[in-house]
Amino acid sequence: MQLTGISAPTGGGVEAPTKSVTGELPWIEVAGKVAPKDARVLTRLFLDRLQVLEEGTHEYQYARNTLIEMNQSLVQFAARRFRNRGSGEMEDVIQVGTIGLIKAIDRFDLSREVEFSSFAIPYIVGEIKRFFRDTTWAVHVPRRLQELRVELAKAKDELAARLDRDPTVKELADLLQLSEEEIIEGLVASNGYTAGSIDLPAGGDDAAGDGRPGYADTMGECDPAMGLFEDLHSLAPLLEQLDDRERSLIEMRFGREMTQADIGRELGCSQMHVSRLLTRTLAKLRTGMTV
C-alpha cells in the first residue's frame, strides 16, 4: 500500500531526521496531512512501537507526537458536536479535546482488539464535556437569558451608581426597554450561573459561623452495595435464559471460583474450549445488560 507523505528514515539530509529519532518507524513529514485510511494503518504501527519504547527517548517522543498530530481529525470530529453549545471558542474545545486524545494514546492497549478511533472518541468527548461543565452555567439556561444576565448586571451597576441604592425591577425594565416580566425572568435565570456549595449552612451565607449544619450534613450517602444490587437484579433474568451447560460454567467459574483448567478436567474438555465457552457466554450476558 502506498502511503502519502511518508518515507523511510534516512541517515542524513535536512528533511528527514536521523535513525536515532525515528528508530524502526517511518518518517512522516506532516502527520496532520496523512489520509484517514493511511492514518488507521500507521496508528496501529506507531501504537505497537510506542508500547515497547522507553519513555523520554527521542524515538518515544517522535512516536507519541506523531500519533497526536495524525489523529487530530478525531478531535475535530468530536468537537463539531459542541460548536453550538454554550460559551467557549472552538480553539479552546480543540485544545481540551486534544488532552483527551493524549490520554487515549497513553492508555490504549492493542490487545483489546478494537479500533483506536472507537477507543479514543469517548476520551475526547468526555474531556470536552468536562470543559463545558467546569466553565459554563451550572444549569442549562436558554441563550437569550444568558445574554440578558450580562445586560442586567451592567444595568444594575449603572443604576446603583446613579441612585446610590439597588434598582427596582421597574427601573431596570425602563432602562433596558423590556417588560417587568422579562426582567424577573432574567433575574431568576441568573441564579443558574453558579451553583451554591453544599458546605454552606442550611440557612445560607447569613447563617455561616452560627453552628448550623450544612446542606451536606442533611444528605444521605450512596450505599456502595447499591450498584452491585442493581447489576445482580438485572443479571438474574439473563442467567435464567442460559442453557444448563452455560449456567454450570458460570457457577463453577464465578460461584466456586474454579480455574479454567479445573473446569476442563471436570467437564472432560480442554482449557481452551472452556475459555471459548466462557467468552461466548459472558458476551451473551454483557449484551443483555447493555440493551
Describe the 3D structure.
The protein is mainly alpha-helical and 291 residues long. It contains 13 helices and 2 strands; from the N terminus they run βαβαααααααααααα. The chain has helices at 19-22, 36-50, 58-70, 72-79, 90-107, 116-135, 143-163, 169-176, 180-190, 226-240, 244-255, 260-267, 271-290, and strands at 6-7, 27-28. A two-stranded antiparallel sheet has the order 1-2. Helix 12 (260-267) packs across helix 13. The radius of gyration is 29 Å and the shape is flat. The protein starts with 5 loop residues before the first strand and ends with a helix.
The overall pLDDT average reads 79
Classification by helices and strands? mainly alpha
- In helices, the fraction of residues equals 55-70%
Shape: flat
User: What summary fits the major beta sheet?
Assistant: 2 strands, antiparallel
Order of helices and strands: EHEHHHHHHHHHHHH
Q: What is the radius of gyration computed over CA atoms, rounded to a whole number of angstroms? A: 29 Å
Distance between the termini: 39 Å
- Spatial strand order of the main sheet: 1-2
Low-pLDDT segments: 8-16
SS field, number of helical segments: 13
